[in-house]
Amino acid sequence: MPIARSGRTAPYKSIPNLPVPADLEIQTCDRCGEEWMTPEDAVRIDAAMDRVYRQELLHRLRAVLPDAKEASRIERDLGLSRGYLSRLRKTTRPPTESLLAILALFHQHPSTLRQVEAFWQQPAQL
Predict the structure, then answer these.
(1) Do strands 9-12 and 2-3 pair parallel, antiparallel, or not at all (unpaired)?
(2) Would you kindly state where each structural domain of the chain is located, as residue ranges?
(3) Spatial separation of the C-alpha atoms in residues 114 and 126, rounded to whole Å
(4) Which of these, 15, 53, 103, 112, has the minimum number of CB atoms within 10 Å of its CB?
(5) 7-42: pLDDT as tens digits
C-alpha cells in the first residue's frame, strides 16, 4: 500500500540525507514497513526528489555566497565571468555541485582562497 509520511530521508546525488517530501507516497509493506518501487514509481519519486534537491542546492548556495568584494576575487581566481556570483544570488537555477563545494570550502576556510591566489601567481613548474 502507498504510504506518505514525514521525517524520511534518502541519499540523493551528493546529499546523503536529503529529506523526502512528506506527501510523497511510496509502496510500503503494512507488516514490516519495507518500501519498494515499481519502475513507474521510480520515475515519480526521482522527479520529486530532484525538486527537493534543487531547492536544497539553492538554500546551501545562499548560505555560502560571498560578499561583493570577495566574489570578484573568487570569480577571477576560478575563471568565472564577472558578476556571475551576483547573478547566482538572484537565480532560481541551482549552481553545479562542484562550484557549490568550492564556495563552501572558501566560506568555511577563507585561507583557501588565498592559497588559490598564490597558486595562480606562481610560475608554472614543468
Answers:
(1) unpaired
(2) 2-58, 66-121
(3) 23
(4) 112
(5) 999 999 999 999 999 999 998 998 998 988 889 999
